[in-house]
Amino acid sequence: AIATQLINSTTILIYIMQMQLLDYLPTIADFPKPGIQFRDISPLLGEPAAFAEAIGHMAAIAQQFDYSHIIGVESRGFVFASALALHTQKSLVLVRKPNKLPLASHQESYGLEYGSDALEIQSISLPAGSRVLLIDDVLATGGTLLATSKLVKQVGANAIASICLLEIECLGGRAKLESHGIASHTVLKTP
User: Is 131 tagged catalytic?
Assistant: First the structure.
């Protein structure tokens, strides 16, 4: 009975925590295109306590993995990945949009819920056999993180999991990543 009460209390606490952090992620209708419901991270970043809370939760998730590097996905993923790398004292690698990296790089194209794009990683960014966590702000369709995992493989490293601040569950990104062997974790979820 005590264990059940503890589990229920933990579930309630997580729900309250999610609602508080979600208050810092307002939805902007029809951005960047009509029909898209965009989650703005600016208010969360502008409130140090909320940002620290979010990074703390991401670090708690990261503790369950044996990894050597953190990858931040351009551009909003850079914010969370750099803070998490500093918090966990792990090496940070950036995955960029095309033509932003000075050295030889690999490129991977991918689809978005509102178009298509491409990402690049420098060939020398990761030592062969590195175990990396993929970090981004929002998990939507999973296309960005799946493309990033393919880039990681191209340089001889292994993407072991992804961690995002927010998952938009109805877009199916978690299932897409997990069908490709990438464990997917988020701090917050919306339907």
Answer: no
